[in-house]
Specification:
This protein is mostly helical. Helices cover 63% and strands 5% of the residues. The protein has 38 helices and 6 strands. Helix 20 (473-484) runs parallel beside helix 22.
Length: 810
């Protein structure tokens, strides 16, 4: 007899009371196991309730079986057998069926099956949630519980539907009021509302405590808003997350001014918090606004922005500041929305206005604004440090994580760092706010750039499902189509988007060029901007420029310079700048006489005669105020290439006398340093060249660098990689060379030379496989290069054969 049979035999020979005792003891053990599992896997309280329910259901089954077994053991004279015997052959089918159903083996088997089903439910739940600690809603479960963190949950609203906005609005209003009182920090409203939107709001303190735990909040607030007879009644209760059965303190207020009532509620709640109400108790207007219409418009703007509709968001924030001209938070979000619409002037001025009104903000919001303003002013390092400090103090602050991602994504390449560093930041945003469209857009670009096509398709589908009519739908579709390299899909897409606005097509062209790894696709997207039906020269020039850079990247030199002639037909001054810029691209064959002729043409350019676009988008107007600085820079670099150091250094000095163009940051200073670096490098003074390059600050609003090869410092960044290679500082060199091609269009033309330099460095580092990868990419780029460039291709093929096993043909 095996152990299980012995157990069954022992149980079924017990008295009724013994069975009850054994079952109670077994149930207690089972509940302890469930409790341990719940703590280990952070399971919701309902799973313990399910286990208890199953045990309760099982009790009458076991009790009934024990009674039947006791009856079956009795003999005809009233005595009991040692064990029951099955019905004899003559018994009816009902007796036999009862015996089969009520044997201990069947009852215990049924119990095991029930608990197995319960285990499957728990397992499926864990898998669908991504498991503890993974990206998704459970990422917050890893946060340690702290009584200094407080979560304000959405209030219930009864009465006028016009007050519905206060349900979620109280999360921000009251949360901002409580944040900073003593040691209190509120859970980020954006993250909490996103989670509640996914999981459902809390119906009672127990479920509210579960939500608070996910954000590391040791305390939480629930409340009601009631409207009756034109008056508001607000009530709120503060609970401990681990002691939610009774509120710590309750507060109530009644009146007509919602903001004054919130102030009363906050005062009452804070009276129950250690340390008293604190110095921060004051009118809510001091941290947000005194205008209800302004606050409602602000909430509308937030909702539109989160869904990827940036123009409606901008308009809503503009309404908010019209209602309250001192509304700092609305100016701040207006700046962010304008950034997504490439309206650089609005983005800059709104950020400054937000800062000017910062005295009305809480300390936490002021810190966010100071970091944001540093970012807008181009102080990339300072902005990064400030945002890191904020997420260190407030780990659920969605806005700080997002802006940190923006810095890593857009400014890293400007400083020789990888855009990949931003992935963790945007994934952190999505762990709190899964439907954040801007983060999904950035992750889509990263997946395309890194060739992770399955991830790209998943992210693109996610974005389309959330934002079928969003402002950035076309660019996401373009990146996806061209990253897959499907010409039919590309044709269909280009036909569908041909009538989009100039700005939308510029965004499609930029995204395709920077992230799809498809040079032909980049050129084709650029062609849409050259349609003569658009009648705007700045749009045509942008289209011809991108097409030329993509053609140079493919070694199609003659075709690239034909794009210059197209520009010369309507804007000769811009064409000369364009020609000089292309002539400085590495691997473009130029001789002394050609460079001298080009310098002569640049000398006679009149910056005032160069057309201004008047376009509101930075993609199309960024060069308008820069032509004087551009002329001196091009003359300086051409002179350095010609070996005319005195002339080059003279032009660098002249740059020092140029008034910085609006919003140009350190551009003029950086161009002058670039000319000095090119002069030193042309003379073979690598250390001096590196010192001059190190003086470049590149403190500029990143959007200027996206559209301008001068603001983006393309030649200087490439040169820094080459100089570091010459000095044997290989790993540093790779940082600069490997991160070209992710900021501005001109970088496409530098990619072939950057691949060759990286191949040489990897060979020097004794990494033949990696060297072969770079040679192979160069060969693929230039497989259709002009005939005079084919010797370079053959040299790379030979190096590739030398590095490949058995000299295999690439």
């Amino acid at each position: 007899m095996g152990p299980t049979e012995k157990l069954i035999h022992s149980i079924r020979n017990r008295s009724l009371w013994q069975v009850v005792g054994l079952y109670a003891a077994g149930a207690w053990v089972a509940l302890q196991v469930v409790d341990v599992l719940a703590d280990a896997f952070d399971l919701p309280g309902r799973f313990a309730a399910i286990a208890l329910t199953l045990l309760i259901i099982g009790f009458p089954m076991v009790l009934a079986t024990a009674l039947v077994q006791q009856r079956l053991r009795r003999t005809g004279d009233g005595t009991e057998q040692a064990s029951p015997t099955p019905p004899d052959e003559g018994a009816d089918e009902g007796q036999k069926g009862a015996w089969r159903l009520l044997t201990w083996r069947n009852v215990i088997g049924t119990g095991v099956a029930a608990f197995a089903v319960w285990g499957v439910v728990v397992t499926v739940w864990l898998l669908t949630q991504g498991g503890p600690g993974r990206n998704g809603a459970d990422a917050t479960a890893a946060l340690p519980l702290s009584r200094s963190v407080i979560a304000v949950l959405p209030f219930s609203v009864r009465g006028s539907s016009e007050l519905d906005y206060l349900g979620e609005g109280m999360v921000s209003l009251l949360g901002t009021k409580l944040d900073g009182a003593g040691e209190l920090r509120n859970v980020d409203a954006r993250a909490l509302l996103s989670f509640v939107g996914q999981e459902g709001t809390a119906a009672d303190p127990e479920s509210a405590a579960e939500i608070a735990r996910r954000f590391g909040a040791g305390r939480f607030v629930m409340g009601d808003v009631v409207e009756a007879g034109g008056r508001l009644q607000l009530s709120a209760s503060l609970y401990g997350t681990d002691e939610w059965s009774e509120p710590i303190v309750e507060a109530a207020a009644e009146g007509e001014d919602a903001f004054a009532l919130v102030d009363e509620i906050a005062t009452g709640l804070l009276a129950g918090v250690e340390g008293g109400p604190g110095a921060r108790v004051r009118r809510i207007a001091a941290v947000t606004t005194t205008s209800l219409p302004a606050f409602r418009a602000y909430l509308e703007g937030e909702a539109a922005f989160r869904s990827g509709h940036f123009q409606p968001a901008l308009e809503a924030f503009q309404r908010a500041v019209e209602a309250d001209s001192h509304y700092a938070l609305a100016y701040y979000r207006m700046s962010v929305a304008a950034e997504w619409l490439t309206r650089a002037e609005i983005a800059r001025s709104s950020a400054e206005l937000a800062y000017r009104n910062a005295s009305r903000l809480s300390e936490r919001d002021r810190r966010l604004l100071e970091a944001f303003l540093a970012w807008r002013r181009g102080a990339h390092g300072e902005a990064e440090r400030r945002y890191r400090a904020i997420v260190g103090t407030y780990p659920t602050d969605v806005e700080a994580w997002f802006q940190l991602g923006e810095i890593h994504f857009h400014s890293n390449p400007l400083h020789g760092r990888s855009v990949h560093e931003s992935m963790m930041d945007f994934e952190q945003v999505l762990s709190f706010e899964p439907n954040d469209a801007p983060s999904i857009i950035h992750l889509t670009r990263l997946a395309a750039a890194e060739g992770r096509l399955d991830d790209l398709d998943s992210l693109a589908a996610r974005f389309m499902a959330l934002n079928p009519g969003g402002d950035r739908t076309a660019e996401v579709r373009a990146v996806q189509a061209f990253a897959h390299g499907d010409p039919v899909r590309g044709d269909s897409l280009l036909e569908a988007i041909a009538t989009l606005s100039d700005l939308s097509l510029a965004e499609v062209a930029w995204n395709t060029a920077m992230f799809s790894n498809n040079l032909i696709g980049a050129e084709r997207a650029a062609r849409l901007l050259t349609d003569k039906g658009r009648f705007t020269s700045e749009v045509w020039t942008t289209g011809h420029s991108i097409a030329a850079y993509a053609l140079l990247a493919r070694g199609r030199l003659a075709d690239a310079f034909r794009e210059i002639e197209a520009v010369r037909s309507y804007d000769p001054s811009s064409a000369i700048e364009f020609e000089a810029l292309l002539s400085l691209v590495p691997l473009v064959p130029t001789d002394g006489p050609a460079l001298r002729r080009l310098r002569s043409r640049v000398e006679v350019v009149d910056p005032a005669a160069t057309r201004s676009s008047g376009n509101p988008s930075f993609f199309l107007n960024v060069l308008d105020s820069r032509h004087e600085a551009i002329r001196l820079y091009l003359l300086g670099v051409l002179s350095a290439r010609l070996g005319d150091a005195p002339a080059a250094l003279g032009y660098a000095a002249d740059l020092g006398n140029v008034s910085p163009p609006p919003e140009s940051g350190t551009l003029v200073h950086d161009l002058a340093a670039g000319v000095r670096a090119q002069t030193a490098y042309a003379e073979g003074r690598a250390e001096d060249a590196l010192a001059a390059l190190g003086a470049i600050r590149r403190d500029i609003f990143y959007q200027q660098a996206l559209a301008s090869p001068y603001d983006g410092g393309v030649l200087e960044r490439y040169t820094q990689g080459v100089v570091l290679q010459d000095l044997g500082r290989y790993e540093e060199s790779l940082g600069w060379l490997a991160n070209l091609g992710r900021t501005t269009w001109l970088e496409l033309a530098y990619l072939p030379a950057a691949e060759l330099h990286q191949a040489e460095i990897q060979e020097a580092l004794l990494r033949p496989e990696k060297a072969a990868e770079h040679y192979a990419r160069f060969v693929e780029m230039w497989r259709e290069a002009d005939p005079e460039l084919q010797p370079r291709v053959e040299e790379a093929r030979a190096a590739l054969r030398r590095l490949m096993p058995d000299g295999a043909e690439p």
